Structures are given as structure tokens and as C-alpha cells.
Amino acid sequence: MKAVVWQGKRDVQVMEVPDPTLKEPTDAVLRITSSGLCGSDLHLYEVLTPLMTPGDIVGHEPMGIVEEVGSEVTNLKPGDRVVVPFQIACGSCFMCGLGLQTQCETTQVRDQNMGAPLFGYTKLYGAVPGAQAEYLRVPQAQYGPVKVPEGPADDRFLFLSDVLPTAWQAVEYADVPKDGTLAVVGLGPIGDMACRIALEKGARQVIGIDLVPERLARVRARGAQVLDVTEHDDIGEAVRELTSGRGTDAVIDAVGMEAHGNVAGKVAQTVGGMLPGKLAEKAIAKAGVDRLSAFQHCIDIVRRGGTISLSGVYGGAADPLPMLTMFDKQVQLRMGQANVKRWVPEILPLLTDEDVLGVDEFATHHLPLSQAPEAYEMFQKKADGAVKVVFRP
């Protein structure tokens, strides 16, 4: 089959690789019909390269048709149309029972002291072959895949794999009061969708913050206020001017380590990528990837006693947090990978013909898998208005 294969920093290639097969009785094999390109994939493309191995298949947003199932998968059959969550969880352990599928005790990547494995990600998360491919082996298929109806195009349901539950959890964790105010820092796919969800759930005022004109325009068109960071010397003060001088009740950080951060952080990332083998892994995993400028803005923006919901991915431990400020402002902080199956029952009822969240038009680009190298470059450079790319093998 053809798959998008990581070969090195800023180097992904479409190559022929062996077709996946059933390995466990709880496996299924999926024929991919659509697969998303995520901002997290750019981490692999750029800053997390020491944690990758040439030949790794990338991608973690799959949708397709079941081709084959293992003997213990009784809830699926060949021909079923499914979306697959980006994390792999069993559904029956203590953590899954709490709705914390990202912490699944059956599948945790214990040799790396990490939570549930992810499709198409680094060795920290199990190095499981990913979904930007023609076929995908799905472990724990007795629980993970979500059956969806025939009829609507893939885009109606594809974003249940990651974008929708990640944005939904970000809004839930923000805990915006009734008729409250929310700022969303970073208007890529997650930040954009978080603005839509917050408005749908009744937030009185949603302020989207970014510097890319196309992203600001998309969010403004859906009913949120926007602030262009290039037009304000003090973005925190700009938010306070819109919120009676207090700041917003909650802030979502949808940027993470892809932030336009400080020079020192960028140097750390680059040096980490130059170190040999295990030294590079340690530098990137423990010390070198964080650029916390976006998170610092969140701390400034949120009102006293407010909540910061962190959905952007941070990966290291180098940058100090302003703990005195956070303590003094009595900031509440929630974070984590999205627990996809926890939120699917709440999201599915919104994916009707009314399309209240605008998922049918959410993707800016639909491309064949063969154009993956160009798509990664375009997405990284934020060129051609790229906000969300969907591959169709």
C-alpha cells in the first residue's frame, strides 16, 4: 500500500509499504477513505525529529471502511463505515471507566512512562503505524472505532477522530460561566473549532487571537470577535479593553509548542535536533521543545480567578512558569490529550444536516495522498490559506 512515511526533518515521502494485517484478536483493518493533517503532525515534521525513526508512518485522524476484524471484535463487521479516535484505548480499564481514555491502563506506553499510544506519533506514544495511508491496522477495535451512518461526505464525521473532541474538551475544561467570556489563543483547526463550539454552547463573548489573516477571517465569519496580535503591542491589555478591564473568564491555549516564541526556545529546538541519538531524545523529551510565549499570554489575559484550558501540545520541561503570578491570580489550569470517546456522544447529535459547527466546509484543502510532501510544506508555512488539510487516498 501507499503511505506517508517520515524520513527526516521536513522530509515526508509517499512510499510503498507492506499492507497491515491482523495481529491480535481485538484488531481490525481499515481501508482509509479520508485522513486529516494535524498541527501535531508538524511537531514530527520539525521539532520532535529525534523521537522519530525513518520509515515511521504518520497521521492520526482516520476514517474509512472496515475490511477485516479479529475474532474478539463483535461490534464491527466488514463494510462498516467508521471514524477512529487518535488514541488507542481498551474501554474497560479503571481509567477508561473514568472517561480518561488517554490514560488507558491496558495500553499505556509504560517503557516511556506515557499514557495511551497514539496513531502515527513518536516513540513516546508507541510509534504505532499511522493513518496517512491506504490501510490501517486498528488495535483495540472492540472499543475504539465509532460507527457513522452512510450518506454525508466524510468531512461530516472525519473530525470526530481528533479536531472535534479536542476542541470540545478544551471548551469543557475552560468551564466558561453561563453568558461568560472566553479568549482562544491560536486559530488553527483546534482554536477555530473551539470558538465555534463555545458560541454554540452559549458563551456571550468569544475572542479569537492569531496573526494569520485567513484564520482571523474564518473565525470572525462564524460570529467571534478577533484580535490580530500584529496590531497590538500588548495583547492582554487589548483583551481587557474588551472585557470591562478584567480579562476573560477563561482562556484556551490552542497553540502549544508551535507558538511564535522566543529565540532561545528556537535555538534549543534546533540544537536538540543536532544532537546524536539518545542525547537528542533526552533533550527534546525533557528540556528543549517548549516556547511558552502563547501560554504566558494566556496567564496575562485570563481574569483573576479564571481558568486556562491547555489543548496545545507542549513537550518539554525547560521553561519556567510564572508561578507567583498564577498563584496570585488564583488561576485554575486544566490540560491533556482529548479523551475522544468521552465526548463523542455529546458531539454526534450536532453533526446533523443543519451542520451547526460548519464541519462540511471546515477543511480548506482536499488532496490525494500523493501530494502529502507538498501539503506538509504548505501547512507549515501557512500558505494558500491552509487551515485544515484532508487526504483522500
Automatic annotation (TrEMBL):
Its cofactor is Zn(2+). The keyword Aminoacyl-tRNA synthetase does not apply. The keyword Cell cycle does not apply. Residues 25-145 form the Alcohol dehydrogenase-like N-terminal domain. Residues 189-259 form the Alcohol dehydrogenase-like C-terminal domain. Keywords: Metal-binding, Oxidoreductase, Zinc. Gene3D superfamilies: Medium-chain alcohol dehydrogenases, catalytic domain, NAD(P)-binding Rossmann-like Domain. Pfam families: ADH_N, ADH_zinc_N. Belongs to the zinc-containing alcohol dehydrogenase family. This is Glutathione-dependent formaldehyde dehydrogenase. It comes from Streptomyces daqingensis.
